[in-house]
Amino acid sequence: MFYYLIFWLINCLITLFFIIKNKNKLLITSLIYINFLIVKWKIITIIFATIWVILTWIISKDPTWDIWISLWISFLYFYTSPYVIWIFYRFFNWLYKDLLNLYISIILLLFSSSWFYDWYNFIYLHWYYPETWISNFVFSIPIYIIAGMFWSLEYENWKWVFFSFQKKEWIEYISPKWSFKNLLIYILIIVFLLVYIFTYFLYYFLK
After folding, report:
1. Residue 162 gets which letter from DSSP?
2. How far, in Å, are 63, 64, 105, 134, 200 from residue 60 at the CA level?
């Protein structure tokens, strides 16, 4: 476990160095990306998602979790997952070949969904590596991917619902006319998947 800890700490530091060094070039640190996230329905859903995560912790009484980790991980999911999913989609469809962005995206995925949880437990809560790190890793990765797809939903011409990362000009695209009801059914489908995963987690943890 010691070597695993050193491995991800080094990778996080390397990623932080690259992000700071290239902050004026990377999409994830740009104002246009922030504007992409600051949309009414996305802000509303991240607030409800954060409340749901906190309630899950309260119900489960998970000793490896608290309100602060709920807030931080909710923020990390919201801020990083659309960017990471975009990079993965473009790269694995041979539309993007920037290895630096791919590396940063992989580390952001692992840090947001797993390593932050490990670090928080190790440094702040217990001073030992959480025994639940593997189950948290397996549980969190699918949620992270679904979250990235969820906050990438877009609506166009009153007809088509799609994922924004499917468009070539992705981050520069903002739906000219948007209504919450246009995306409601798709939002509910994804929310149902997330609730199902969380419910399974509660059942698994409490049984």
Report:
1. E
2. 9, 11, 31, 18, 12
What gap in Å lies between CA 96 and CA 154, rounded to an integer? 21
Residue 198 pLDDT level (bands cut at 50, 70, 90):
low
Residues contacting 193, CB < 8 A, separation 6+ = 146
Q: What is the pLDDT of residues 42-63, one digit of tens each?
A: 898 899 889 988 988 888 788 8
Per-domain residue ranges of the chain: 2-206
**Which amino acid does the sequence have at 20?**
I
98: left (phi over 0), alpha (psi -120 to 50) or beta: beta
pLDDT value at 18 more than 90: yes
What does DSSP assign to residue 125? I
Say if CB 83 and CB 109 are below 8 A apart.
no
Q: Which amino acid is at 87?
A: I
Contact 120, 67 (CB under 8 A): no
Q: Are the CB atoms for 10 and 16 separated by under 8 Å?
A: no
Q: Which residues pair with 163 in a beta bridge?
A: 153
